[in-house]
Amino acid sequence: MKIEIIPYQESWQEEFSLLKERLKHLLAPLEPEIEHIGSTAVPGLCAKPIIDIMAGLKEEAELDVSAGLLEGTEFFSMPVYNEQIPFRRFFIGAKKGVEPGEVVHKNRSSHLHIVPIESEWWNEHLLFREYLKRNDAARDIYAKVKKDLSMHEWSHGNRYAEAKTDVIRGLLQDAKKKAGD
């Protein structure tokens, strides 16, 4: 499979805003904090046209409650990933009219990560986003890697994500150093 990377779209901010309001309504009993993360949250950065969303919950015990609240909506739970990252629940937001078995990349509108708000995962994703927003050189490095990797054929979208890991870790370490200054 090829990974589609396109230039930054101003509409991604509006798409996130609509998804945020929808999720605030669906997850209202949990009072989540909802953030736009990933490349679509960084003006000027190329990205897959899939909005990455992070919802922060006060308690890890609420994670499974979130899955129940999203059942029967356009957000399909992916419990296969619960074992890999037990403190996160991952959902794929499907485009209108898409059934659960049809959520290949072209049919996705969003990826939703639900994690405890006090987790390292939460903090690192926000730090990384802000670092890329403020640092043109870091954003350009990341963009080049994404574009280069998008030229390859991938057996699964996760292989593409894994291929970016070393660069992300390096940029995140730079971000942490600068935050500590």
TrEMBL record:
Pfam family of the protein (one): GrpB
Name recorded for this polypeptide: GrpB family protein
Organism of provenance: Metabacillus sediminis
